[in-house]
């Protein structure tokens, strides 16, 4: 059987370039398309040469319709607006859509759910094995500790990140809320500034640090009386996200239409 053809969107981005390396090195898939936004100075160039290496025979294009039509999977780490558009294209082509993009609004998520009626969509704010294991640990610790243990999620990322809290922080917050038998919407504390008043018992707080080239760091802090428990994940290489995304694209080939996450892919659900 022919290997699944993969289209990568946002190929000139931090994750896009990492995905190109990981997908190109895999002998389980074929890279069949490289998409960038209209106006990008990578358009029309050979992808390998644009990345500073040898010619790859794949030209960078903004014609996502044509590229997605000949693909079995789209791996997409771009922007919310672009991701919603790619979800519709992938659904039309019945291609698996792997979404790493974060900062999606409730409206964006609604559009993605509608697209998932036609093809598999695998979406996670963090595609690494470590963070998805940490979600299970967070849920268990939150369930084991009472409400007198305050939960705070602290994350740090590079200076270019545009959304906060990070997608990972929200996933970890949701896992903690589920451990407490509630949804994050019910427990999430508003961002703090000025005279905030005392902490609401049982709430889950978020803090975001932005600076330098930090790949991604997340602490889930359980603060009790006289002791603190800290669950931590440190990402030092974006390859962990790209490897997870490729694994999801391959796993998705055997799934029917619907919404999935990395816990499903990794069998941790
Ligand atoms: N789920 C996960 O494991 C991870 C998720 N992310 C998320 O991935 C997203 C991208 O992150 P970075 O690569 O750091 O950002 P970036 O800004 O370096 O790359 C985004 C790329 O998307 C391109 N793009 C924007 N609109 C487009 C369009 N309409 N068509 C095609 N390409 C388009 C941009 O030109 C750019 O090259 C962010 O939302 C980030 O939070 C990042 C790392 C891991
Ligand atoms: O923008 C990033 O870089 C990252 N984004 C994801 C997030 O929002 O959690 C995953 C990772 O932390 C890197």
Automatic annotation (TrEMBL):
<comment type="subunit">
    <text>Homotetramer.</text>
</comment>
<feature type="domain" description="Dihydrodipicolinate reductase C-terminal">
    <location>
        <begin position="130"/>
        <end position="266"/>
    </location>
</feature>
<dbReference type="InterPro" id="IPR036291">
    <property type="entry name" value="NAD(P)-bd_dom_sf"/>
</dbReference>
<feature type="binding site">
    <location>
        <position position="37"/>
    </location>
    <ligand>
        <name>NADP(+)</name>
    </ligand>
</feature>
<feature type="binding site">
    <location>
        <begin position="124"/>
        <end position="127"/>
    </location>
    <ligand>
        <name>NAD(+)</name>
    </ligand>
</feature>
<feature type="binding site">
    <location>
        <position position="36"/>
    </location>
    <ligand>
        <name>NAD(+)</name>
    </ligand>
</feature>
<dbReference type="Pfam" id="PF05173">
    <property type="entry name" value="DapB_C"/>
</dbReference>
<dbReference type="GO" id="GO:0016726">
    <property type="term" value="F:oxidoreductase activity, acting on CH or CH2 groups, NAD or NADP as acceptor"/>
</dbReference>
<dbReference type="GO" id="GO:0051287">
    <property type="term" value="F:NAD binding"/>
</dbReference>
<protein>
    <recommendedName>
        <fullName>4-hydroxy-tetrahydrodipicolinate reductase</fullName>
        <ecNumber>1.17.1.8</ecNumber>
    </recommendedName>
</protein>
<dbReference type="InterPro" id="IPR022664">
    <property type="entry name" value="DapB_N_CS"/>
</dbReference>
<dbReference type="GO" id="GO:0019877">
    <property type="term" value="P:diaminopimelate biosynthetic process"/>
</dbReference>
<dbReference type="InterPro" id="IPR000846">
    <property type="entry name" value="DapB_N"/>
</dbReference>
<keyword id="KW-0220">Diaminopimelate biosynthesis</keyword>
<dbReference type="InterPro" id="IPR022663">
    <property type="entry name" value="DapB_C"/>
</dbReference>
<keyword id="KW-0521">NADP</keyword>
<feature type="domain" description="Dihydrodipicolinate reductase N-terminal">
    <location>
        <begin position="6"/>
        <end position="127"/>
    </location>
</feature>
<dbReference type="GO" id="GO:0050661">
    <property type="term" value="F:NADP binding"/>
</dbReference>
<keyword id="KW-0963">Cytoplasm</keyword>
<feature type="binding site">
    <location>
        <begin position="100"/>
        <end position="102"/>
    </location>
    <ligand>
        <name>NAD(+)</name>
    </ligand>
</feature>
<keyword id="KW-0457">Lysine biosynthesis</keyword>
<feature type="active site" description="Proton donor/acceptor">
    <location>
        <position position="157"/>
    </location>
</feature>
<keyword id="KW-0560">Oxidoreductase</keyword>
<feature type="binding site">
    <location>
        <begin position="167"/>
        <end position="168"/>
    </location>
    <ligand>
        <name>(S)-2,3,4,5-tetrahydrodipicolinate</name>
    </ligand>
</feature>
<feature type="active site" description="Proton donor">
    <location>
        <position position="161"/>
    </location>
</feature>
<keyword id="KW-0520">NAD</keyword>
<dbReference type="GO" id="GO:0008839">
    <property type="term" value="F:4-hydroxy-tetrahydrodipicolinate reductase"/>
</dbReference>
<keyword id="KW-0028">Amino-acid biosynthesis</keyword>
<feature type="binding site">
    <location>
        <position position="158"/>
    </location>
    <ligand>
        <name>(S)-2,3,4,5-tetrahydrodipicolinate</name>
    </ligand>
</feature>
<dbReference type="InterPro" id="IPR023940">
    <property type="entry name" value="DHDPR_bac"/>
</dbReference>
<feature type="binding site">
    <location>
        <begin position="10"/>
        <end position="15"/>
    </location>
    <ligand>
        <name>NAD(+)</name>
    </ligand>
</feature>
<comment type="function">
    <text>Catalyzes the conversion of 4-hydroxy-tetrahydrodipicolinate (HTPA) to tetrahydrodipicolinate.</text>
</comment>
<dbReference type="GO" id="GO:0005829">
    <property type="term" value="C:cytosol"/>
</dbReference>
<dbReference type="GO" id="GO:0009089">
    <property type="term" value="P:lysine biosynthetic process via diaminopimelate"/>
</dbReference>
<dbReference type="Pfam" id="PF01113">
    <property type="entry name" value="DapB_N"/>
</dbReference>
<comment type="similarity">
    <text>Belongs to the DapB family.</text>
</comment>
<comment type="pathway">
    <text>Amino-acid biosynthesis; L-lysine biosynthesis via DAP pathway; (S)-tetrahydrodipicolinate from L-aspartate: step 4/4.</text>
</comment>
